[in-house]
Amino acid sequence: AVNDEELKKRIAEELALERARRDSEAHKRRLKQEQMYARDEFGKLLEQERISSNEHLTRAILRERAATEEERQKAQRFARQLEEKDRELKKHDAYYKEQLARLEERSAQFYKVTTEQYQKAADEVSSRFK
């Protein structure tokens, strides 16, 4: 009877140990599964974040390219306007130089005529009152 009881006790202990071992292994499996799930979810989140980051970066690059192109076109437009203004100023400069030359020529002619008239009048007065 003692042997039976001891045997039953031993069997019960071994069964309890076996059950505890199985529970422990099941717990380890669940833990591993949960870790794998967490790792997968974390990986998915990282991938989504990477994709979002890449999209944001791509949009930023496109915005910068568009802004750069707009600035380039603006600079070209300003350069054309500056060239037009420069041509206009040169045209005005030539026109005013021409006008100045005409005025100087007319002034010289007027001076010549005035001088001749003065000389003529002086000669006339001189000949009258000799």
From TrEMBL:
Subcellular location: Mitochondrion inner membrane
Keyword set, alphabetical order: Disulfide bond, Lipoprotein, Membrane, Mitochondrion, Mitochondrion inner membrane, Myristate
Gene Ontology CC annotations of this record: MICOS complex
Topology with respect to the bilayer: Lipid-anchor
Biological processes, Gene Ontology terms: inner mitochondrial membrane organization
Keyword Transferase tagged: no
InterPro entries from the UniProt entry: MIC19/MIC25 (IPR007964), MICOS_subunit_Mic19 (IPR052632)
Keyword Membrane: yes
PANTHER family tied to this protein: COILED-COIL-HELIX-COILED-COIL-HELIX DOMAIN CONTAINING 6, MICOS COMPLEX SUBUNIT MIC19
Protein name as catalogued: MIC19 protein
Origin species: Rhinopomastus cyanomelas (Common scimitarbill)
